[in-house]
TrEMBL record:
Stretches assigned to the Styrene monooxygenase StyA putative substrate binding domain: 144-253
Pfam families per record: Smoa_sbd
Presence of the UniProt keyword Ligase in the record: yes
Keywords: Ligase
SUPFAM superfamilies hit by this protein: FAD/NAD(P)-binding domain (SSF51905)
Organism domain of life: Bacteria
GO molecular function, one term: ligase activity
InterPro entries, per database record: FAD/NAD-bd_sf, StyA_sbd
Name this polypeptide is given: Alanine-phosphoribitol ligase
Protein's UniProt keywords contain Ligase: yes
Amino acid sequence: MPDIGIIGAGTAGLHLALLLQQAGVRTRIYTNQTADQIASGPPQNSVSHHAPTIARENAMGVNFWPVDEYGYQVHYHHLNVPDGPPVFRGDFLRPSRVLDYRIYLPRLMAEYEERGGTIEQRSVEPADFDQLARVHDLIVVAAGKRSFAEYFGERPDVSPYAKPQRHLAVGFWDGVAQTEPRSVTMSISPGHGELLDLPITTFDGWASALLCENVPGGDLEVLMTQKQSEDPEAYRKLTLEKLKEHHPTVHERIDESRFALMRPGDILQGAVRPVVREDYRLLGDGTVVLALGDAHATVDPVTGQGANSASFEAQVAADAIIEDGVVDERFAQKVALRRRERVDGLSTWVNTMIETPTPPHLQKLIGAMAQMRTLCDEFTENFSYPHRNGDLVATPERVDAAIARHAEIGQDPTEVKAH
């Protein structure tokens, strides 16, 4: 079996390392942060792990946070327009889970090392690849550093945006009552942005990860541009004010006297440009350098798919390595082919969701979801299979076909549940 060098200790790198470790394949992870540095640092993300990712964790023996205790199985949706529909619901077939990555990543790093793996703390750049190729048969780049993005280059056919389409702010907040049943809430304020309220397990117990996806130039953009660290109390009040105006169904669950970040600094502010990059490159000696996870595809978090996509890609790469035992260009082509439908489909879904103004066919779909519980359930379940939502929203004709299909199923008005 080949020897694999993995750059990055996020979901993609750790899942690949653990999968290969189970199969007896030699690996080494290179990362510029220790587990302690990750645990004591700022939040990493607010991503959900959906059922296929959790099943993979079970198979790897690293599902230390069972969904019956830490999970949720419902999405609530709200469209904040005058005389708009009431809150409408969609259900997963199997639960999902949100966990503070400052807990998750160090735990998986420890497990990999306890099973005999090696994590080397060092900063790696593309200039180091030739040296690493003298040690490893395959180099897997599973970190989202800018120099790696430039090394692989973009695929313009699935990277339509020259700049971020949302300005982001995500904080882990106390004082937000959980829904019953526990759920993720997506609130949409047309022209201004989206809010995802996610039930996250942190160091100090349950919190609400409030992910504000703000349209540049809209009324909510200030949640990214006004830096929380400069005046935390002013930012807290600003957040309450904007939630009340734009996302009232979340605001109504807030106890303003308790509303505060779980810990000082429990917030991220910034922006992400969604982009899909080339799958691999070859070094002069023929060694494959494979892009994985964030190095391969960077997605806006509005659909909560980054870690799930990374885990899926890790499984595809691990399967091909184990099947072939040879990590040449043919191997890299197989990995590219096997993951493309899911990666490109996810890209279509994300790029449609963040298009401004909102495409008419997406507006039509959301309106139909408010009236058709089975359609909303399908859209929700597709968070576990994101390329299916990519298919669904790809064209107006596909949205019409989905609505017609669910209309044939027939809708009992009592099934369209409010919050």
